[in-house]
């Protein structure tokens, strides 16, 4: 399989892929050209709408279903529609998306459709108690849905260490040290209708083989952004981007709420600053959807979604099916 962009008529990033109605549906960010200066706050990622893509076969024709939701249609949003995800809950397709509210604080919204490709109708307010970026939904075999989220630097996770938004901690400030726990992503159970958290949210613990939380200076292993959850042979795989070291890593647990034990890397750094992915089973094989900036010749804010097959060894460790 050539590792080519799924589509080239628009830039797409942060792919969340799901098998719905016998096809693969991909929910990406829609990157666009702007003249905004690059900074660690991510202001250059100034997206205004979402398109949904679908494929009947991996490697086959890709359909762009057009605009599924736009910022202007969401009353609470000021700007920056970042990485979305979708889930089928209670008979409806739910699109979860982060954006800055009118005060510049990232929140997570939900929009609903009868069809996987949308268009989606947004709730007028963000999900109560939501913050930061990169929502990733997961519906377990018992029907309970979960929402994982969080991202450091521009994603503002570092601003929420006291439980309320502390703007003084915005920018690239995060814990440092070999004896200081790393910032942790968050998870909450969703209500049966998928529109709110059922109760509060909690930290997602990522630990080493000895059960010790990964530390802040473990840049190769600790969480930065881009949470994803999938289940394989009864185990819960929490995968994520390590951010400034640009790996996609994963950790494995027995419970969707964690803890998860660090398991290794799935993807080495790609062309471009960010890395972001999803993992999905389709027709008996497993696939990693990801993005890179090769089509835009390295422009970090102009990314393209790609797909590669992954495999598991007998211990459940993940590897790319083809190394190159
Ligand atoms: O697309 C904007 C941000 O870049 C996403 O929310 C992050 O995961 C990173 O890919």
Cα-based radius of gyration, to the nearest Å: 18 Å
In whole angstroms, how far apart are the ends? Answer: 10 Å
Assigned CATH superfamily:
Glycosyl hydrolase domain, family 43
Q: Please give the count of helices.
A: 0
**% residues in beta strands:** 35-45%
Helical content (DSSP H or I, runs of 4+): under 10%
The low-pLDDT segments are none
Question: Which kinds of small molecule does this entry bind, naming each only once?
Answer: beta-L-arabinofuranose
Using DSSP, what is the number of strands?
Answer: 22
Order of helices and strands: EEEEEEEEEEEEEEEEEEEEEE
CATH class descriptor name: Mainly Beta
Number of domains: 1
Q: What shape does the CA trace take?
A: globular
**What is the residue-mean pLDDT, rounded to a whole number?**
96
Structural class: mainly beta
The name of the CATH topology is Tachylectin-2, Chain A
Give me the CATH architecture, please: 5 Propeller
Q: Major β-sheet, in short?
A: 5 strands, antiparallel
